[in-house]
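Archive transcription. Copying these from loose printouts into the bound notebook so they stop getting lost. Printout 1 of 2:
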Amino acid sequence: MNQQLKTAGILAGVLLALGGLATWDEWQTKKDEKKKETENRLFTFEPDKVTGIEFSNREGTAPVDISIERASGKWQITRPSKLLADQQAVDNLLTTLKDYKFESVVADDASKNASAFGLDKPRRVIELKTEKGTAKIAVGSNTPVGYSVYSLAEGPGVDGAGKVHVGSQHLAVSTGKTLHDLRDKKFLTFSNANVAAFELIRPGKPTVKLEKKDGAFAVTAPQSFPAEQNQVFTFLDGIVSTNASTFFDHPDSKLQNAFKGRNIGELRVRLDDKTSVNVKFVEYDKKIHAWTGGTTPIVQVPDDIKGKLEKTASDFRDRKIFSFVGDKVTEVILDGKSFSKKNAEWYGSDEPTKAISQIRSLLVDLEFAKATEILDAKDKASRESTEKAPVHTVKLTIEGSSQPIEIKIWDKAGSAESFLVRHSEAKAANTVYSIGKASLSALDSTKKSAAPAVDLGHD
């Protein structure tokens, strides 16, 4: 018994030793990985701990000195002007500095021969302010051979302060920023969600006006009708999200005078807080420029914005033909034949025990049908078709409504692939909708399913 206890004790000790060894090995591995991760880094810092940046770029035709401060969680440029910074661009700059690794140390004291490394007049100097102090990196000249660059780092979080390091030229390329690179490129700062109304004005064309009512936009001029919400927000997003390709903070007189002449479009926006933003677009020097007036900069914007300004009221119109909900339909009369719903299935009056799935498909087609064109019943294109007998008639009884929806469908004259539709639910009695026959394919399948089988007879 004593021998067994002794053996068990030895085994337990071995297991504990092995467990301890495994734990130590795991700890050592993580330590080695951490050391390898930070080895040869110029800086050891966390980007979210940086509160300010002093950036100096002496390269190019327009050297810049830029001050950036973090305020209320946002990067703000404070020098040479007060501007909102491009948040991603600033974060990317910090990430580049944090992750950059040098290859070797070529001099222990940069001050002794700084000119040999281009560090007496560095092309880039970047200072990072943190709670521990200010760290600085200077980017010197490229090495005579290869694709490397000299650099110098000093301050808290820097190993090998004052030494000349050599490493990839990626450091020089990725820090070669201009004021334009680091500033926010959006020249319109409001959000689509805060737009209460807007007007689109183009020379020689009717002014298009839209207004938000009960949370949804409607066209109010030159005609009044419901708007397709996706179309409205796609348009607004296309304008609001446009980035300026060039800022003219101090435009010359010629560019300023261009906005006193004929413009290619104007967008007047009223926001929920009752403030307004008016932006004019002009073509100057074969480029599109925009200006919101006052002391705001004139900006050059991509040429494709010109096409976005060509929208008409019809482009914003809601092309959904019906507003009923298919699940609320309790009875369908299609071309004189009656169908009723029982336990979520549809049955014909002549075959009350045979479920007909095509009726459900027809209701789905009708509920989500969108017109390719909206016409007036008085138009010649409409009269040529609607003066004839319809090819289909549909009557829908809606749960909770005493007034059925009556629908008439014609083949569109001159178009073998289209129908014309009129219905009693339309807000405008004279409205005629053109729709592709493929969008109402259930009509054809319903017709086929209702066709009697051919009796071939028997010998």
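Printout 2 of 2:
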Amino acid sequence: MTGTGVSDRGWSRGQRPVVDQRGSGTVLAVMAIAVVAATAVVAAVVAGLVVAREQVAAAADQTALSAARAQANGEDACAVAAEIAERNGTDLRDCEVVAELTSFVVTVTVTKDLDPHWPGLPDRVEATAHAGRP
């Protein structure tokens, strides 16, 4: 420091250095947009999983009800279940009929592959439903 009251940095005491901040708002805006976009992608993926799960659950319910109706009419419940599952865009993974003298329960499990597949998330959804005459 010299005796003139000016520091070695070229500005006097009590003053702050002038820093060029041009473009800093742009950087913040780009970061905010990136965060919003990432959040939107995550929300869309989660919403897609929820919708797929609900669709497969509805398909399982319809498949089980159709199979139970077929069983009540003396038809092959699992053959009907396979047909209904295919019509709903799902795969019949399991079909079981437990029958007694006057009652029966049909249990079906259907699956559906998810497309596109996201790393770290399930690649298929599955649902099980029961229907019958107690």
